[in-house]
Amino acid sequence: MNTSNYFKMIGIIVTMLAEKITPKLYYYLAWLQALVASVVSLYFSEILHWPPCTLCWYQRIFMYPLVMIIPLGIMRKDSRLYTY
């Protein structure tokens, strides 16, 4: 298979999936991403004892609160949740 055909096929599949995703599902996906990132970062630092770099600390500062903020916005049905 030609690589350009492969990328066209992937583009078509992604477009079809994007049309079926509702905005509410994006909120749950954002929460899942924040949750997984937080759990994995804690696993690396607390279980494996890998010291985080400076950039990792900045990422954690902004990622950890999202685990609590996004579900609160979902429960409150906040119309401005996309700004979180």
UniProtKB/TrEMBL annotation:
This protein's UniProt keywords: Chaperone, Disulfide bond, Electron transport, Membrane, Oxidoreductase, Redox-active center, Transmembrane, Transmembrane helix, Transport
Location in the cell: Membrane
GO annotation, cellular component aspect: membrane
GO molecular function, one term: protein-disulfide reductase activity
One Gene Ontology term from the biological process aspect of the record: protein folding
Pfam families: DsbB
Membrane-spanning parts: 25-45, 57-75
Topology versus the membrane: Multi-pass membrane protein
Domain of life: Bacteria
Record flagged with keyword Repeat: no
Keyword presence, Transmembrane helix: yes
Main location: membrane
Family label: Belongs to the DsbB family. BdbC subfamily.
Protein's recorded name: Disulfide bond formation protein B
Species for this entry: candidate division WWE3 bacterium
